[in-house]
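Problem statement: downstream parser choked on a complex file, so we are re-checking the raw output for the adenosine-5'-triphosphate run. The parser issue turned out to be on our end (a line-ending mismatch), but while we're here, posting the original submission so the record is complete.
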Amino acid sequence: MQSDFQIARHYFGHYLKPYPWQLIISVLTVAIYCGAAVYTPILLGHAVTQLTTVLAEFRAHQTVVMAPFIRTAATMITINVVAGFADCATSAILGWVAGVSTSRMRSELFAKMQRIGVSYFDRTEDGDLLARFTSDLDNIFNAMNQVFVNSFYWFGSLIGVLIMMFSSNVMMGVVTIITTPLAVLVCWFVITHASRAVNEQQRAVGALNGYINEQITGQKVIITNGLQQPSIAGFTSRNATVLQAAQRGQIWAGMLMPVMSGLMLLNTAIVIFFGSWYVLQGNMALGTGLAVVAVFVQYAQQYYQPIIQLTSVYNIIQQAVTGARRVSEVFAQPDEVRSTDGKVIDGVHHGVKLTDVHFGYLPGVEILHGINIDAPRGHMVALVGPTGSGKTTVMNLLNRFYDVDTGSITIDGTDIRALELTSLRNNVGIVLQDPQLFSGTIRDNIRFGDPDAGDAAVINAAQQARIHDYIMTLPDGYDTLITDEQSVFSAGQKQLLSIARTILTDPPVLIMDEATSNVDTVTEAQLQAAMNAVTRGRTSFLIAHRLRTIVHADEIDVLRHGTIIERGTHAELMAANGFYAQLYRDQMPELATNA
Ligand SMILES: Nc1ncnc2c1ncn2[C@@H]1O[C@H](COP(=O)(O)OP(=O)(O)OP(=O)(O)O)[C@@H](O)[C@H]1O
């Protein structure tokens, strides 16, 4: 695991590297601001002295010579105006740099997400992933925006106070900084606990977001099953975890200032005590000695201010490092395996073959136990079987969402792991059971796989998929905006749209997860016609839920517990009177007698 330092160096170093000039200019503008802050009290002192002289002269000689005072006042105003501009420039430049850097990080994170294998999304909650784009990146932005300027300013102040103290009286200087190790230790202790609480809080917020996301997606299921109370209870407990973590963080973070103030008072007491003792030892004249004590009481307080501020800067860095660590977890995910010299295929000439395929999602839990399927070009293979038998898993392997553990899947004799991944995906189309529609028009959604397709091709695909007529009933036809997909399309219609998409991209191999049986009879007839259109001439694998739709398949493979237990055409399997025949009779008793 990378250390905090490595993480900070990577994120701050790597992302700030392209902006050296902006950073150099900010160093100068901060230096101007710091210089003005340090120099203004000196000028103020001069101004007071000059004003006193003016008043004394006026009393003594009734003459007023204001020039030196006006010069000092004008210098003070000028310096502070310049410092004000410098401060504005610092904020603008660093705000810009932080904004551009985090925007780049966000883009790279998004691009990375597109390259990660599907397994990561299977095991990561959506909300948690979303939190990495939002709160984690916000923390990194805050650090980039504030840390640089604050640490430079307060570090400069610390050095300034140290120089002033040691040039004034070394012995007293040593006494004033003597509590520093204790202060640093206390700060470190408090901040470590505070940042641990921040980590917990960020994790808890991620889990809460994931839960909210899941509950919003499943709202209809919750309502229809009357699960509102358990849903609220689940939310309440996760919300309480967030609150507890936030409160723990607040308590630890809130402890910092009082503890440091206490230490500052202790330090002041030590300075007064030691200074008085020092003076009483007769090491210096009483008046001078008391002046030194008074000055060092001031220094003792000034010295602690930068230490407190620098520790709070450290706190911001901690939050950013936590965010960066969570973002880096995404970057650390392996990309989908792509062979560098992968073969490019143009269509399927002989067929697709699965040979002794074994696979499990988790180590030691095998789901598929030696699957053999031979699908010659143009054949339609249907996979049927009870829920959880492994049908979708076979589909996941065909498209290389996952790789087989042992055995092989070949297209025209070439292992699909040796193919260029894009070429494989271009040649294998998928129609999912519950296809995803994206915001945009219906036309955009059909053209999804082939954005250059013309209107005629889009309409032709929609006609073949039997969705054209429905689209034409909508007031805006193909220009209908899909914002709330549920309100425009039923589940069956969404699948018809997805079939139109696939017809447009014309893949030689098709994987289709047929929509579940809960579609009305009109849509079912349309789906059947669309399926006939989309499978025609293609090597297709069909997960069938309604066995009626696959009676014409060239081969039906019956899966049970990850093994093919029966294989044949519909007629052969019915004649065998085995598991398939039983399934068929259970599903369609009225047809079973005619089959
Ligand atoms: N991402 C995953 N991680 C771990 N196990 C998984 C994953 N996806 C599926 N499984 C497990 O693999 C087994 C087969 O699941 P699969 O989805 O392939 O079944 P299926 O036949 O398609 O079921 P259904 O008809 O219900 O869709 C099940 O036991 C399931 O729990």
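For whoever reads this later: The chain has a mean pLDDT of 83.
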